[in-house]
């Protein structure tokens, strides 16, 4: 029988944490929560639901999750963000896996990204494959401060789903876009990645055309156009901020 450790990192996630943990308990034997000093009821709710909660000031997404992996008891870890939850098909697929004899070290799921409580089935938002179930004895998260992922060469994708309550509204999306683009620039400046003055425009235009035309945003009405546009803005800002660091040794958040 599969033994799985659930892992969630949190900061003021009282709105989401209950549904997230309740879905994890459908397939996990323990749940580890790494909390970044929340000021709401996140810790109380997680403790009530039987999770083992550890407090750790935020280290960045990759390092924070790897810190959590070190506290997991079992070889296989199922990591969800607090605003995610397993859908019924994912629960069934996980229960059916023979993880002891698996030829893979990582499994990805299709993520349903919701916006205004509506599943966005176009742009890069679907199918949005995310690696969530992995063998911690073989793989770890990347050390990226943002947009971390499980680094694996022996992975496969399941057809089942994780539900993701990604953004509350456009204001929330813009706020996170600004935050993530800054962190991308800082990560890549550390890696000494060089960009040209054309990089922001070319990447931004490419992201819009990909999302709106190739990924079907054109068929999703106002949300499809706006999400494509904001994805393009996010891509533009990542490279503009990296260029800013290279030219002026600084970036504004």
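^ Assign residues to that structure.
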């Amino acid at each position: 029988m599969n033994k799985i450790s659930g892992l969630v990192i949190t900061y003021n996630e009282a709105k989401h944490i209950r549904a997230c943990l309740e879905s994890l308990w459908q397939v996990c034997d323990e749940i580890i929560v790494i909390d970044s000093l929340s000021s709401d009821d996140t810790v109380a709710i997680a403790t009530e639901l039987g999770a083992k909660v550890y407090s750790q000031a935020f280290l960045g997404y990759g390092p924070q999750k790897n810190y959590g992996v070190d506290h997991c008891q079992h070889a296989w870890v199922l990591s969800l963000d607090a605003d995610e939850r397993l859908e019924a098909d994912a629960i069934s697929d996980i229960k059916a896996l023979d993880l002891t004899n698996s030829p893979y070290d990582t499994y990805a799921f299709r993520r349903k990204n919701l916006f205004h409580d509506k599943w966005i089935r176009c742009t890069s938002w679907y199918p949005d494959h995310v690696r969530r179930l992995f063998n911690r004895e073989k793989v770890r998260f990347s050390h990226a401060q943002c947009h971390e992922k499980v680094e694996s060469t022996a992975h496969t994708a399941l057809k089942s789903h994780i539900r993701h309550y990604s953004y509350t509204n456009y204001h929330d999306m813009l706020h996170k876009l600004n935050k993530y683009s800054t962190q991308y620039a800082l990560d890549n400046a550390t890696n000494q990645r060089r960009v040209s003055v054309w990089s922001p425009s070319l990447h931004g235009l490419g992201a819009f055309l990909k999302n709106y035309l190739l990924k079907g945003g054109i068929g999703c009405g106002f949300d499809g156009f706006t999400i494509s546009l904001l994805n393009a803005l996010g891509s533009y800002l990542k490279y503009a901020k990296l260029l800013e660091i290279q030219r002026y040794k600084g970036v504004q958040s």
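The domain at 4-167 is CATH 3.90.550.10 (Spore Coat Polysaccharide Biosynthesis Protein SpsA; Chain A).
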